[in-house]
Every structure is written in structure tokens, then in C-alpha cells.
Design brief:
The complex is a heterodimer of chains A (307) and B (328). Chain A has 307 residues and is mainly alpha-helical. Chain A has eleven helices and no strands. The longest helix of chain A is centred in the middle third of the chain and has 37 residues. Chain A is elongated. Chain A starts with 11 loop residues before the first helix and ends in a 6-residue tail after the last helix. Chain B has 328 residues and is an alpha/beta fold. The radius of gyration of chain B is 21 Å and the shape is globular. In chain B, α5 crosses α7 and α7 runs parallel beside α8. In chain B, 36% of the residues lie in helices and 23% in strands. Chain B contains 13 helices and twelve strands. Chain B has an eight-stranded mixed β-sheet with strand order 6-7-8-3-9-10-12-11, sandwiched between helices. In chain B, strands 2-1-4-5 form a four-stranded antiparallel β-sheet, covered by helices on one side. Chain B has two domains: 243 residues, Rossmann fold (3-Layer(aba) Sandwich); 71 residues, no CATH class. The chains are: A mainly alpha (307), B alpha/beta (328). Chains A and B meet through α1, α7 and α8 of A and α2, α4, α5 and α6 of B. Bound molecules: adenosine-5'-diphosphate (ADP) and magnesium ion (MG). Adenosine-5'-diphosphate binds next to β1, β2 and α1 of chain B.
């Protein structure tokens, strides 16, 4: 970048080059963390499998077939069939689509909500802060599982067709998840706004909008990325829990949670492990992989938060 | 000389759980157009709070904050201005640089972004014009390859370079008053001299006034037209620089001047004023300096001295000279 064009105004290209060099350094550090990269690879493979895999499956129509109920894994059905004769492998992948989508979407929603409310709270303080934080506190005092059930039960009363229930679940998860996010962002905001460079912005006569969006939020991006990543894992887990208890996405739409729920009886548990092992392992592996990756990300982007 | 800034009976108090801290207590001074006024004093005597009060950086919380006085700038009382009026003034008419250049710039924004910001806001320049001006400014503060610096992040530059950038930002909109709060304290000596040289040059070129805060009398000797000595939130002595250095009146000023090593003059031991700055919570009705003063008299323990003129170009707050006046 030493060869910036002769013109006085720096080229846009040069600027982005430096910006990306900062990110490139982070990426280099991340690449050194083998465990985190393994986590990322697993997550990516899981996404690819779930979103592309079913296209190659002859059983993707999800049709029931009474002649081949509860078959153990075999050459035609690699992970066997369920009690309605549907291919378990295909269903696990289709379920993964829903679970991963719900995880991602609810993360986006709760991170947006949490960042916005937390940032406003920490920036303006006073009444705004009081109102937002009291609501957050209220939600945080209730442990998240009962809270999930409360929201789940409330929203289950709405007559929502099964295929749209996943949107309800996203909403529930973000309602439960935004307060902790907002708290972290607010805390960071409170400490950032006391930093000398923020005093310098006041001295320069910058307005609130500029301070908030140009100076403060960019400083929060590493933290937001880290929390967002870890948040996906949590959301997938919560979605499974909700669906397992029949408060989330319901049949016939498969999710990892309701597939395990469908096998929730003694006979299936003892005799037909192919019904519940695949979705169970999928949840386990995906969530662990996301968390390992998120931890690695935190070490790189937000070293101060390291525990 | 025409007044640019006139601070009149300014008080800034903080009410804490332990009691009231009178960080700035009823001080008055003026800064003329094109003049450099230095405020000196030991750490904790209210210099920064004075500067922050002028900049409107002290947020009123309950009874804490600026509790009295006026701060006239160009005929207007800054304390009475609305938020928006104050904002248009800051960064364009008055600007300020801080002690720590390393932490005064946003770590995730490029130098260019931060330098063009005030130009675009106050001077309403477009992106291209602002960038062009920013490059000129970087060159003006003596940094080579300005185009490259534009794209750098603060952590890629040294402390001295960052302070130059801070100065470039501060002077970018041609302020009438520059407040510099210990601008060279964090830098090493050679760079310190360069920075001061530069400030002086800009001042001479643009008729800017400087209010320079420091605890270093070497800096004062180099820069000041007029000197204000603060102690425990009050002005104890002030005067034109030659007079004050020639014939300091207040025992505190004398102590400060004595604690400065003199080149080529062998001293057994570097003098330092015995004792410490009083706890701001335990100030009583007395001269705040009495317990460190070698000339302490009875009256000093019970009553604070007023700031009075001694000669034409100097004022001091000390009973020694009141006595002299009475007897004369
Ligand atoms: N927010 C605050 N609350 C209470 N006391 C304060 C506050 N800010 C500063 N002070 C006190 O005001 C006094 C003056 O501080 P300052 O102006 O920063 O000193 P200095 O001359 O070193 O710049 C100090 O005694 C400090 O403890
Ligand atoms: Mg200070």
C-alpha cells in the first residue's frame, strides 16, 4: 500500500486494503488455533450436509411408507426408517435445515435487539437505561428454561399452522436471549464512553448519532461477532428443548428436538437407537463445534474476555 | 490586548459521599487574543477540571458540576449556551488536546477518518476536499508520507506522531482558542521540544490563543506570555512570565521555581517543597498552603488571603504582602 496514487486523496482501494489487513491478521491468528478451525469445518460441513444433502436423497419427499416401518439401518436406508417408514437420514438432514435456520435467524434477531437496546441503554443512560434494563432484569431473573416454556405455552395458544411454527420459535428464542446480550453491550458501552477518545469526540463537536454509529459501535463489533457465534449454539439447543417438549416446531416438520421426542419411549430407546442417536448426536456435535469455534474467535477478537 | 476568553469567578465542585471537593474554587482569569496563558501547579490542584469546565465536559449531576461563575468566549457565556450552539463552537472555535495521545484517538478508525471528521462537520467540506486538507494538515505537523498515514490506525503510530495528529485535528478548523492539557507530559524530551515548537509556530501563523496546562516550569518558560499558578483549586499567583520568573512572590511559586534544576549551577540536592497537596476534602478556612509554608504566620491558619495586585503585572494571594501593604 506504499504505492498510493499520486493524487492527494487516498484511493478507496488503499483504505480497504488496510482495513482488511487488520482482519487478515485476526484470520491468521485464528488459523493457528487448530481446534477452532476443526469446529468451523464441522459446522460448515453440517450446514452443507443439511442444505444440499436432501437434494440427493430419493426419500426427500418425506412420504410415509407403512411396509418398511422401524427398519434398522441397511443399504437402502443408511440410518434405518422410523415408525412411519420414513428415511431417518433424510429426516435428520431436513431437521437440521430447520434447526440451523432457527438457530441462525433467532441469533440475528436477538443480537440485533440486544445490541440496539444495550447500546441505547449504555449511551443515553438515565430514563432510557432504567426502562430497558428493568425489563431485561425481569426476564433475566426467570431461569431461561421456565421462561422458554412460558413463552412457548403462551404462543402455542395462537392457532399457528405447523409449517409457520418455526417463526414463532425464532421469536421466542430471541425474546429469551436478548437481555443477556443487551447487558453485555451496555457494560461495554458504559466503559467505552468514558474512554478518552470519546471525550475527544465531544470536544470536536460531534453529535450523538455520529458518536454512537461511527465511534462506539465499530468498537463493539469484535464482541458482537463473538457473542453472536456462541449465541447460535445456545439457540439450537433451546430450539431442541422446546421442540422436544412439543412447544416448538411440531410434526410433520422435523427438527432434531421433535425427532428425539418421537422416539421418547422405552421400546424405541432400548431397541431402536437409530431413531434417536442421529438427531441427538447432530445436536451434540453442532453445538460443541460452534462453541469451540466461538471460543477460538473470542481469543482472537476479544482477548480481554478470556476466562 | 483584546479578551478572547474571560473566566469569571468560576467554581466547579463535586459532592461525594465523603464530602465536597472544591476542585476549582472561585477563580478568574483572562486569555487575550493571540496570547499564551500557562496554568501551572502540582498534580491534583484543579488544572484539568478548569479546562474541562471551559469545554463543557463536566456533566452536572445533582449539585455537582460547575456551580458558579461565567465563562465568556467572544462575548458569550459558554455556560448559558444550548447543546447545539456549544457543539458548533467545539472543534471549530475552541479545541482541546489531551495528555495521552495513545488513548485520545479511536483505535478502530483510521487517522484519515478521524482527521476529516471535523472538517466535514464544521467546514462542510466534501469527502474529497476534506481528505485533501487532511493530507496537508498531516504534512504541516511534520509527518512525512501523509497519504500513507491517512490509512493507518492509531496503534501503528508512535506517541509523538499521534500527538502531532491530535494537534492536526485540533487546529484543522482554525480555532481561536486551543486548550492543551499537559500535551507533552507523556512524550520524551526531544519530541516534547518539537511539539512545543510546532504549537508556537501555529500560534504565530494564525493568531490563535493557547491555554496551556502543565506542571513543567521549563515548558512555561518556553511558551508562556502570562502564567497562572494554581494550588488546591485556587489561583495563588499570576503574572507576566518575565516578572513571575524574575520575582516570584508567593512562597509556593518560589518553591516551584526552586524545585527546577538550573543548568550549570551545582545544587547539593534538588529542592522540593516539603509536604503534600492538602486533601481536597479537608480544606479549612485558612491559606491552603500554610502547612507547607516556611513563612507561615498566625493569620495564615485562620483566614485565606485574597488575590491582590503586587506591582502592575503580577497578582498574588499571600498574607506576607498584605502585611507589607498595611505597614507601608
Ligand atoms: N469526578 C470527580 N469527583 C470528585 N472529585 C474529583 C472529580 N474529578 C476530579 N476530582 C478532584 O478534583 C481535583 C482536581 O483534579 P484535576 O483538575 O484533574 O487535577 P490536575 O491539576 O492534576 O489536572 C483533584 O483533587 C481530584 O481528586
Ligand atoms: Mg490533569
Amino acid at each position: 500500500m506504499s504505492s498510493v496514487s499520486g493524487a492527494a486523496a487516498p484511493g478507496r482501494g488503499a483504505k480497504t486494503a488496510v482495513k482488511s489487513s487488520m482482519w487478515r491478521q485476526s484470520v491468521r491468528l485464528l488459523l493457528k488455533n487448530k481446534l477452532a478451525i476443526a469446529g468451523l469445518v464441522i459446522v460448515v460441513l453440517m450446514f452443507l450436509a443439511c442444505f444440499i444433502g436432501p437434494m440427493f436423497s430419493p426419500y426427500a419427499d418425506n412420504k410415509t411408507n407403512m411396509r418398511i416401518m422401524n427398519r434398522a439401518p441397511n443399504l437402502q436406508h443408511w440410518l434405518g426408517t422410523d415408525k412411519l417408514g420414513r428415511d431417518v437420514l433424510t429426516r435428520v438432514l431436513l431437521a437440521g435445515r430447520i434447526s440451523l435456520t432457527v438457530g441462525l435467524a433467532s441469533m440475528v434477531l436477538s443480537v440485533t435487539l440486544g445490541t440496539l437496546l444495550g447500546a441505547l441503554s449504555g449511551f443515553f443512560r438515565g430514563v432510557v437505561d432504567q426502562v430497558i434494563m428493568r425489563v431485561a432484569d425481569l426476564l433475566l431473573t426467570i431461569p431461561s428454561l421456565p421462561l422458554l416454556f412460558i413463552f412457548g405455552a403462551l404462543l402455542s395458544d395462537w392457532k399457528v399452522p405447523p409449517e409457520n411454527r418455526m417463526y414463532i420459535v425464532m421469536l421466542i428464542l430471541s425474546l429469551v436471549n436478548w437481555p443477556s446480550m443487551a447487558r453485555m453491550i451496555r457494560g461495554q458501552m458504559l466503559s467505552l464512553r468514558e474512554r478518552e477518545f470519546m471525550q475527544a469526540t465531544t470536544v470536536l463537536g460531534l453529535n450523538n448519532k455520529r458518536k454512537l454509529f461511527h465511534h462506539l459501535l465499530p468498537n463493539l463489533i469484535p464482541l458482537i461477532i463473538v457473542i453472536a457465534t456462541l449465541n447460535i449454539g445456545g439457540a439450537i439447543l433451546s430450539e431442541s428443548v422446546l421442540s422436544f417438549f412439543g412447544l416448538g416446531v411440531t410434526a410433520p416438520t422435523p427438527t432434531w428436538g421433535n425427532m428425539i421426542d418421537a422416539a421418547n419411549n422405552l421400546i424405541d430407546f432400548q431397541e431402536r437407537p437409530w431413531l434417536w442417536m442421529p438427531p441427538g448426536l447432530s445436536i451434540f456435535i453442532t453445538v460443541i463445534a460452534i462453541n469451540i469455534f466461538g471460543d477460538g474467535l473470542r481469543d482472537v477478537l476479544d482477548p480481554k474476555q478470556k476466562r | 490586548m483584546e479578551n478572547l476568553l474571560r473566566v469569571n469567578r468560576l467554581s466547579t465542585h463535586f459532592h461525594t459521599d465523603e464530602g465536597t471537593v472544591k476542585a476549582v474554587d472561585d477563580i478568574s482569569f483572562r486569555v487575550g487574543k493571540g496570547e499564551t496563558v500557562c496554568i501551572v501547579g502540582e498534580s491534583g490542584c484543579g488544572k484539568s477540571i478548569t479546562a474541562m469546565s471551559i469545554m463543557g465536559l463536566i456533566q452536572a449531576q445533582g449539585a455537582s458540576g460547575v456551580t458558579g461563575g461565567t465563562i465568556e468566549f467572544g462575548g458569550e457565556d459558554l455556560l448559558k449556551l444550548g447543546k447545539n450552539e456549544l457543539r458548533t463552537l467545539r472543534g471549530s472555535e475552541i479545541s482541546m488536546i489531551f495528555q495521552e495521545p495513545m488513548s485520545s484517538l479511536n483505535p478502530v478508525m483510521t487517522i484519515g477518518e478521524q482527521l476529516t471528521e471535523p472538517l466535514r462537520i464544521h467546514r462542510k467540506l466534501n469527502r474529497k476536499a476534506a481528505a485533501k486538507r487532511a493530507v496537508e494538515l498531516i504534512a504541516q505537523v511534520g509527518i512525512s508520507r501523509p497519504e500513507q498515514i491517512m490509512d493507518s490506525y492509531p496503534h501503528e503510530l508512535s506517541g509523538g506522531m499521534l500527538q502531532r495528529i491530535m494537534i492536526a485535528i485540533a487546529i484543522s478548523c482554525g480555532p481561536k482558542l486551543l486548550i492543551a492539557d499537559e500535551p507533552t507530559t507523556a512524550l520524551d524530551v526531544t519530541i516534547q521540544a518539537q511539539i512545543l515548537d510546532m504549537l508556537r509556530r501555529f500560534k504565530d501563523e494564525s493568531e490563535m490563543s493557547i491555554m496551556l496546562i502543565t506542571h513543567d516550569l521549563g515548558v512555561v518558560a518556553e511558551m508562556a506570555d502570562y502564567v497562572i499558578v494554581m494550588y488546591a483549586g485556587k489561583i495563588v499567583e499570576e503574572g507576566e512570565v518575565e516578572v513571575l520568573f524574575d520575582d516570584p512572590k508567593h512562597p509556593y511559586t518560589r518553591g516551584l521555581l526552586r524545585s527546577k534544576p538550573v543548568l550549570g549551577q551545582l545544587q547539593d540536592e534538588l529542592y522540593s517543597i516539603p509536604g503534600q497537596v492538602p486533601d481536597p476534602l479537608e480544606l479549612t478556612e485558612s491559606c491552603y498552603f500554610h502547612d507547607r509554608c516556611e513563612f507561615c504566620m498566625d493569620i495564615c491558619r485562620v483566614k485565606g488571603p485574597p488575590l491582590r495586585g503586587v506591582g502592575e503585572r503580577q497578582k498574588t494571594a499571600c498574607w506576607l504582602y498584605e502585611e507589607a501593604n498595611v505597614h507601608a
